[in-house]
Each structure stands twice: as C-alpha cells, then as structure tokens.
Design brief:
The protein has 204 residues and is mainly α. The protein folds into 2 domains: 65 residues, Orthogonal Bundle (Arc Repressor Mutant, subunit A), CATH 1.10.10.60; 136 residues, Tetracycline Repressor, domain 2 (Orthogonal Bundle), CATH 1.10.357.10. Helix 8 runs antiparallel to helix 10. InterPro entries: Homeodomain-like_sf, HTH-type_TetR-like_transc_reg, HTH_TetR, Repressor_TetR_C, Tet_transcr_reg_TetR, Tet_transcr_reg_TetR-rel_C_sf.
C-alpha cells in the first residue's frame, strides 16, 4: 500500500488539537487528544514524549496564532510594557479555557525564553534591579491571565444585590457597565495602576 502523501500526525497538528480540546473542555487527556486526531493513543508517542511536551506544543500553537512579540522594546519602558501586556492578554483571550493549564506548566521553550529576555532587558535598561525584574514580570502576568479569563466571564459578575443591606455596592453597580466594556475598563484601570506602582519601585 502506498504511503499517504500527508502524514496523519505531525507535531503542529498535535499542538493545535490539544489547544482546541483544553480550550473547550478545560482538561487534557491523551485518549481525548487521540480521538480528536482520529488515531490510537499509542500513535501520539511516535511524535511526543508525553504530556509535558504536548503542553509545550500547545504554547507553540498559541504563539503561531497570535503575535505575542508584536511590541517595540525600544519605546520608553512603560509604553513597551503596556504594549506587551496587551498583546499577551489578546493571545490568551483567544484560548481562555487553556489558561489554567498553560499558566501552571514550567516554561522551557526557547521561543518563550526569547520573549522573557526582551522583557527582562527592557526592565533592566529602565533601571530596575535584577532581583526585582522576575517579580515584576510575574505580577504583571498574573494580572494579564486573570484579565484574559475575565474576557470570557459573564459581563455581570455580581448580581441580585439587595439595596437595603448593601447600598454602597448597589450604587457602585449602578454605575458599572453591564456588557463587555466592564472587562476592558477593568483591564485598563488595573494596567495603569500596575505601571504607576512599578514606576514607584524604581531604585532611586
């Protein structure tokens, strides 16, 4: 029998399929991934060593879909960091269901190292101390990932508030958007506050 012109499996297909599954179901299992690809589970191990490598391929698929490096590190550090935060959030927002898995798996991929290298250089050049830089990146990432999840959350997260027992909260909610603008305004407000706080942490 002649060999098929296009292989049934390759690493890029595996990563893209895994990203779809986790985005839809929130979990990743080898049997589910094999079903999605229409192969036996054992066939996957001809291309990947296991779950950790599949997660790495998911990150690669996400990077291919979205321009997480579409920012200019030669800008003033606050502008560049804001641009990075926005592109990073946009990338994760397209696959918010995968955020819990991707955010808790160690980052060993060279393309991820290259991204962090640019951010680290940006912050060091701005004058932050070496001991501050990873903490600042982690703090900003935590906010970005939470904001990506907020984009797919219901527009109204706090509801049915009795005005008699919580009058201040009710008044606040009266002046809060009840559509997608809530998440966008929350992200803008939080990002502005973080960058202002980062500036205050610059060594004198």
């Amino acid at each position: 029998m002649a060999r098929p012109r296009t292989p049934l499996l390759d690493r890029r297909r595996i990563g893209a399929a895994a990203l779809r599954i986790v985005d839809e179901q929130g979990v990743l299992t080898i049997p589910a991934l094999a079903r999605e690809l229409g192969v036996a589970p054992s066939a996957l191990y001809h291309h990947v060593s296991g779950r950790d490598e599949i997660i790495s391929l998911m990150r690669e698929a996400l990077a291919l879909e979205t321009a997480t490096d579409d920012w200019d590190p030669t800008q003033p550090w606050e502008q560049a960091l804001e641009a990075w935060a926005r592109t990073y959030r946009a990338a994760f927002a397209t696959h918010a269901g995968a955020v819990p898995l991707l955010a808790t798996a160690p980052l060993a991929e060279p393309f991820m190292h290259a991204m962090y290298e640019k951010v680290a250089e940006l912050l060091l050049t701005a004058g932050f101390a070496t001991g501050q830089v990873m903490l600042l990146i982690n703090a900003l990432e935590s906010f970005i990932l939470g904001s990506a999840l907020d984009l797919v959350a219901p527009p109204v997260m706090v509801s049915d508030v009795p005005r008699e027992t919580a009058p201040h909260l009710a008044a606040v909610l009266d002046d809060t958007p009840t559509d997608h603008r809530r998440a966008e305004l929350a992200f803008d407000t939080g990002l502005r506050a973080l960058l202002t706080g980062f500036r205050a942490l610059l060594p004198r």
